[in-house]
Amino acid sequence: MTPITVLAAETPNPLLPATYDIVWSAVCFVIIFFAFWKLVLPKFREILDERAQAIEGGIEKAEKVQAEADKALAEYQKQLADGRAEAARLRAEAQEEGAQIVADMKQRANEEAERIISQAKAQIEAERQSAMLELRGEVGGLATDLASRIVGESLRDEHRAAGVVDRFIADLEAQTPAPAIKES
């Protein structure tokens, strides 16, 4: 054998591991793979299934909550619309009541004005009557004074004045009115 070939047979290939390393590595791999397959993988699947169920349950709950929220929103919007309609109705009623109150107040004011006017007219009429009586008394006194000056007798005494007035009227009736008219 040549020295070069001897050396080649004795040095192993550095890229290939030794056979016992390959066997032991394969045995360890099979043991670890079997342990992983029987112990870890089922736990891992169980955890993934639980998470999937939790996610699906969460999604279902979220869908239920969303449906309830949509229902509550619809109910809220309906109540809001009802509230607005009720507010509009109350506003309309208040406006009608306000108009009625204004009309009533105008009517009361007119009635009060008419009552005040009628009271004022009655008071004016009473004052006019009182003024007429007072004026008649004053005119009567002035007439009596004038008559006493014309007749020449004092007419301050009522009985005497009544007698003088009666006598004066009788004298006037005795006189003929025709010559007085002709002289005028």
From TrEMBL:
* SUPFAM superfamilies named in the record: F1F0 ATP synthase subunit B, membrane domain
Residues in a coiled coil are 59-130
The record's subcellular locations are: Cell membrane
Origin, by domain of life? Bacteria
Q: Does the keyword GTP-binding apply?
A: no
Its membrane topology is listed as: Single-pass membrane protein
Provide this UniProt record's keywords sorted from A to Z: ATP synthesis, Cell membrane, CF(0), Coiled coil, Hydrogen ion transport, Ion transport, Membrane, Transmembrane, Transmembrane helix, Transport
Task: List where the protein spans the membrane.
Answer: 22-41
Q: Pfam families from the xrefs?
A: ATP-synt_B
Extract the Gene3D superfamilies matched here. F1F0 ATP synthase subunit B, membrane domain
Quaternary structure, from the entry:
F-type ATPases have 2 components, F(1) - the catalytic core - and F(0) - the membrane proton channel. F(1) has five subunits: alpha(3), beta(3), gamma(1), delta(1), epsilon(1). F(0) has three main subunits: a(1), b(2) and c(10-14). The alpha and beta chains form an alternating ring which encloses part of the gamma chain. F(1) is attached to F(0) by a central stalk formed by the gamma and epsilon chains, while a peripheral stalk is formed by the delta and b chains.
The role this protein plays is: F(1)F(0) ATP synthase produces ATP from ADP in the presence of a proton or sodium gradient. F-type ATPases consist of two structural domains, F(1) containing the extramembraneous catalytic core and F(0) containing the membrane proton channel, linked together by a central stalk and a peripheral stalk. During catalysis, ATP synthesis in the catalytic domain of F(1) is coupled via a rotary mechanism of the central stalk subunits to proton translocation. Component of the F(0) channel, it forms part of the peripheral stalk, linking F(1) to F(0).
Q: Which PANTHER family match?
A: ATP SYNTHASE SUBUNIT B, ATP SYNTHASE SUBUNIT B', CHLOROPLASTIC
HAMAP family associated with the record: ATP_synth_b_bprime
Family per UniProt? Belongs to the ATPase B chain family.
Name of this protein: ATP synthase subunit b
Q: Give the gene that encodes this protein.
A: atpF
